[in-house]
Amino acid sequence: MKILIILAHPSPKSFNHAIADAAASAARENGHTATLIDLYRQGFDSHLPAGEIPTDGEVAPEIEAMCRDLRAAGGIIIVHPNWWGQPPAILKGFVDRVFRPEAAYRFLEGDNGEGVPEGLLTAGAALVFNTSNTPKERERTVFGDPLELIWKKCIFELCGVDTFYRRMFTVVVTSSEEERREWLGEVRDAVCSYFPAE
Amino acid sequence: MKILIILAHPSPKSFNHAIADAAASAARENGHTATLIDLYRQGFDSHLPAGEIPTDGEVAPEIEAMCRDLRAAGGIIIVHPNWWGQPPAILKGFVDRVFRPEAAYRFLEGDNGEGVPEGLLTAGAALVFNTSNTPKERERTVFGDPLELIWKKCIFELCGVDTFYRRMFTVVVTSSEEERREWLGEVRDAVCSYFPAE
Predict the structure, then answer these.
(1) Which domain holds residue B170?
(2) Could you tell me where the DSSP H helices lie in B32-176?
(3) pTM summary value
């Protein structure tokens, strides 16, 4: 199985990088192909230009290649910090540009864009790992945890991926090494559970 | 009063631009100073670098200037399309970089970043205008309207701006010219109501 891992954190020594590496190792140990897209390292251009908005718009070849990889992935894993209840801009831009019509979803015939799109992704499951410095209870009661809505409802269910798992590790800034080791164990367990050896 | 208008849409002929222009005119007619930041036109660099994350991190002078303008604004108006229940990446990056600690909020003494921040913005109100192609009822029931949580709870209340108004204009793609004219009238009315002549 091809597993696509998309990572957004500016510091190569971040715990997010450790999570992405743990997910990739676990996937490979299970016999899968894991491709890690480190958006900051690649210098991904995150600003959707006007010309790419229409379904038949002109799309850069490197974006088209990413669209094909996304659609073909048997599993998708997203790793990013919780910044303002949202992903970092560079990852938001990956969604804006790569989750395209006719790649990730399509409008049904006779629909000008106002209707209910049909999901086109073929992944069996999507996993989202977040890091945060907001205590879990405060995230839920004060902020309403918009990341859950964003990834589960607005993105993956719309694109046809209904099997969804998300885990927010918090509070990272005050966590012990022991705690972070356990968290990486949880990442490996989740990957093995959703993408077992074939 | 100084009113800061932040706009994110790649097409200069977009309805978002018409909204931002209507908001700026209404503010000026009421005797305020309106500054419009058109993020796409300015080519804003939206990727928060690792070095800017710490409170005492090294911040580019143009970002520092934007932080000062944000903190000093008597009113803030945000204009953007609903893309995946979130702002476009370029605007997300404006929040990541310009809503900085010690500019938009601060951690209380002895707090390593895990606690409850104190808002520092001085704006009397924040207005958010969105455009969308998702019918209102579907946005609420299927997607949970994360933009409301994001702007109201995660950003403006955290930064100390409790007076908040948001209006999502939808469905834009099938709207008539008459309808869009009425919507621009609503924009002007909201600006006049929240930021009346002094």
Answers:
(1) 2-46+73-108+117-194
(2) 39-42, 61-72, 89-98, 136-138, 146-148
(3) 0.97
CATH number, domain with residue A181: 3.40.50.360
With respect to residue A72, please indicate whether it lies within any of the assigned structural domains. yes
Q: Does some domain include residue B30?
A: yes
**Which residue, among B6, B83, B138, B166, would best test binding to A if mutated, counting the most A CBs under 10 Å from its CB?**
B83
Report CB contact under 8 Å: A53, B10.
Answer: yes
**What tens-digit pLDDT sequence spans chain B (198 residues)?**
999 999 999 999 999 999 999 999 999 999 999 999 999 999 999 999 999 999 999 999 999 999 999 999 999 999 999 999 999 999 999 999 999 999 999 988 777 777 788 999 999 999 999 999 999 999 999 999 999 999 999 999 999 999 999 999 999 999 999 999 999 999 999 999 999 998
Does this complex have an ipTM over 0.90? Answer: yes
Measured between beta carbons, the chain B residues lying within 8 angstroms of A10 are: 47-50, 53
Number of domains chain B contains:
1
Q: Does B137 touch chain A (CB under 8 A)?
A: no
